[in-house]
Specification:
By secondary structure, the chain is mainly α. It has helices at residues 2-42, 61-66, 70-101, 108-120, 123-133, 141-149, 166-191, 195-203, 208-219, 221-235, 240-245, 257-267, 271-295. The chain has a single domain, classed as MetI-like (MetI-like fold, Orthogonal Bundle). Helix content is 71%, strand content 0%.
């Protein structure tokens, strides 16, 4: 009798869980799964907006075209460089900020709010602010600051229109805007570490260095994995900053996969080619995620 009641309770809990998960599942179905299937199907055609020609099956021709397209290859290179810089730098800064804001000092709530505020700002607003910072000549705050610090020897630069400086400028903008999100995740993980672990280690004579490498970092393992995975995905979704700050220029120096796909679809009206780009984008992000999960196995924290 007890087993029957437990089985009924388990079925009831499962039904309730599916009921509450239904809105999220429907959102994934209609806004992720179905659009992706349509993108895969369209990538094998020659569809163009406004074209009087009938839609025909083109096979792999769209994929062959994008992998010989200099703009798309530049976009892949820029995204790779951007991810290789942003992921480690932003994660390291987030960890340092989380360690600093985890101290029992006065005013920490204010500092936490200030560091997190850029995350809640719209990306369009953040991009406009940094356009003013990177503005050329005396109008730009960064140029004025560097001239002041160098006692007038700094030559003003047009950061967003210099092919060697445009991508680093966008990189700095993205790190500044997104580091607060990773900081909050790591700060929550830090505050969940049992105090007894530190007390026991101090009794054994462990110093601050030993506490960090043998207790703090192992306990933050899962949080760091989550931060790295999310940051990697977000770096390949870079679009807003590029669209507002540089429009992919100069000379494709800041073109990204997402920007090139959107520009191809709605600028050149080549829907089939843009669909092929989004499929390649999805495969790249999926492979990177699986590779990170394989290299850094998801294990529970050491207790």
């Amino acid at each position: 009798m007890i087993f029957i009641v437990q089985d009924l309770q388990r079925k009831q809990d499962t039904t309730i869980a599916w009921f509450f998960s239904l809105p999220a599942l429907l959102g994934l179905l209609f806004f992720v799964f179905i659009p992706f299937i349509l993108a895969v199907a369209l990538s094998f055609t020659n569809l163009r907006l406004g074209s009087p020609l009938p839609v025909e099956i083109a096979g792999l021709s769209q994929y062959k075209r994008i992998f010989t397209d200099s703009a798309f290859l530049h976009a892949m290179k820029n995204n790779t460089v951007f991810a290789l810089i942003v992921v480690p730098v932003q994660t390291s800064l987030a960890l340092l900020l989380a360690l600093f804001l985890n101290q029992p000092l006065r005013g920490m709530t204010i500092f936490r709010t200030l560091f997190f505020m850029p995350v809640i700002f719209p990306l369009s607003l953040v991009a406009v602010i940094w356009i003013l910072i990177f503005a050329p000549g005396q109008q730009g705050m960064l140029n004025s600051l560097l001239e002041l610090l160098s006692f007038g020897s700094w030559q003003a630069r047009d950061f967003l229109h210099d092919s060697s400086l445009a991508l680093p400028a966008i990189t700095i903008t993205s790190i500044w805007q997104g580091v607060g999100f990773q900081m909050v995740i790591l700060l929550a993980a830090l505050q969940s570490i049992p105090v007894e672990l530190y007390e026991a280690a101090r009794v054994d004579g462990a110093g601050r260095k030993q506490l960090f490498f043998h207790i703090t970092l192992p306990q933050l393992r899962n949080a760091l994995i989550l931060v790295i995975l999310v940051t990697t995905i977000l770096t390949f979704r870079l679009f807003d900053q590029v669209q507002i700050m540089t429009q992919g220029g100069p000379n494709y120096a800041t073109t990204t996969l997402m920007f090139e796909a959107v520009n191809t679809a709605f600028g050149s009206q080549q829907i089939a080619r843009a669909s092929a780009m989004t499929v390649v984008f999805f495969v790249i992000v999926l492979l990177l995620t699986l590779l990170q999960r394989y290299l850094v196995k998801h294990e529970g924290p050491i207790t």
